[in-house]
Amino acid sequence: MLSPDPAVAGRRAAAEARASLGDELPSFGVLFASEHFLGSAEALMAAVTAEAGSFPLIGCVAEGVVGGAREVESGPAVSLWLAAGLGPVETFAMKFLRTRSGGAVAGYRFEPGRPGVHLMICDPSFPADDLLAHLNQNVAGTVVMGGLASGGVLRESRLFLDGEVLSGGAVGAHLPAAGVRTLVSQGCRPVGDPFTVTRAEGNLVQELGGQPPLVRLRELAADLPAHDRDLLAQGLHVGMAINEYRSERQQGDFLIRGFVGADPESGAIAVGDAVEVGQTLQFHIRDAASADEDLRRTLQQEAAALGGRKAAGALLFTCNGRGSRLFSEPSHDAGLLAEKLGDVPVAGFFCAGELGPVGGQNYLHGFTASIALFPGA
Q: What structural domains and CATH numbers belong to the chain?
């Protein structure tokens, strides 16, 4: 068990991470700490800096921490991930500023066409979904990976930026030349048939294939086996097709959004994103088996793409609704990553929302495992 003393824990994590680089100097670091260190985040950061030196670094205090093939959901834990040779890494902080017209995000300027990946870790009150929507529409080619900090009481957060500790906003790093691969496993599987949205307004779906969505849903429930019908009752999800031109769609071909509510009188349903007439929607369900299958498939495809090369490292942003809340075995996501990609240096945390691209657009997800994979030479 790791010591809850921030000085001891920080020095130990830094010494082990620093030793893994040998004689190379770190060019970037990511630090995650369990919520046991919420009140001592400054002391932890100071201990890490004293032991490992100064370099670009981001991170946060979180509900649970990932290190290697292990996920620690209870007990004190610190995970420090260091990388060398990434080239110039630019770290930044962002804040949400309220204005008369609503608000604005300030502190960093995203520029169109910049290569590489932006890693971001946000306070849960930071408008990450609005920022991502802005980037999708106005800053073409920007790729964002990361998550919302989950540790603390009453949504209190601690974010790490270089040698400092922030209590809100967002911290990030632009990695211009790392060749990072982005993997997003949404953990749901489609059921029934896909339908075209024939009437909608905002996030309200009024007709699917000419019929009220609740009619389609009742027809689906009647045809499902008992196990899937139970899953449908426990938590309905909606998949929005990523590519409307694909003739056949499978698990992973949809952007998953939650079911918000329904109007029994009209048969309309509300979902967790704006919907447009002409889009293809399909109902989805989620359970441990579906989440395992989706992540397993994603990692197997990536292992094949690597062609026998070993990954240099990975950052895992997994939902706090996964882990022991979903899977019967411990350390499921981190363990599966190790099983499929080998003994890769991994750090991560349990998020209150995950950031990652699907279909070339950036989104805020739930119940997702988002992985930033650093290929080896």
A: 6-185+291-375 (no CATH), 189-285 (2.40.30)
